[in-house]
Amino acid sequence: MARILVIDDEPDVALGLRLLLQRAGHEVAVARDGREGLRSFFGTPAELVLLDVSMPVMDGWETLGRLRDVTEAPILMLTARGLELEKVRGLRGGADDYQTKPYSNQELLARVDALLRRSAVEEDEIEVYVDGRVSMDFARHVAEVDGREVLLSPLEFRLLAAFVRHRGRVLSHEQLLELAWRDPLAASRDTLKTYVRYLRRKLDWSDGESPIESVRGVGYRYVAQ
User: Fold this and answer.
1) CATH assignment, 3-124
2) Fold of 128-222
3) Which of 11, 89, 105, 219 is the most exposed place for a label (fewest CB within 10 A)?
4) Taking the model in full, what pTM does it have?
5) Cα–Cα dist 57/36, whole Å
6) Residue-wise pLDDT tens digits, 79-131
């Protein structure tokens, strides 16, 4: 299951996409224009965006540029325009794929699945991660924070790796237990909370300064610097 954001100003199209994607097992958020879509994405980042081109307030081209400033998540452009120049503009602007309307539901689902698979493979192939505070060499099992190496246990390393590999996304307790413990039944939520507290302390992150944010009732999110 992936979280997918649909940005389309046509209510019937948006509803159809929501139902189609939900039946395929995905979590779906819908926004009526680019500005609302950006607010939704900043609140809870999506793993894939379906973006219409012709919209009021903020059209798809401007929304595409704003999204590309903050995320590498796949973006699939949806439009009634089938001109080659429009497709080239979208792909050069940072879109990952382009689907013209009307479309086959099965073709759209196939494109969505392909983009999600490609994104997952690219994420898994990352050997070194670096942001403003954290760097991780996954092959050498080395983690540095603010330029200093930090000794982490294998479990702590996997927990931090789970956060940075899924930066910007809200990870549920169950997802983190799967990613770090490799078994959602291997530990309790209280154990997870304890290890997150240990990790913050070992990295010298106080609650107010930690890029690992608690999302009440859901889980945690890592916000890259």
Assistant:
1) 3.40.50.2300
2) Arc Repressor Mutant, subunit A (1.10.10)
3) 11
4) 0.57
5) 9
6) 876 666 667 777 777 788 888 888 889 999 988 988 887 776 555 566 888 98
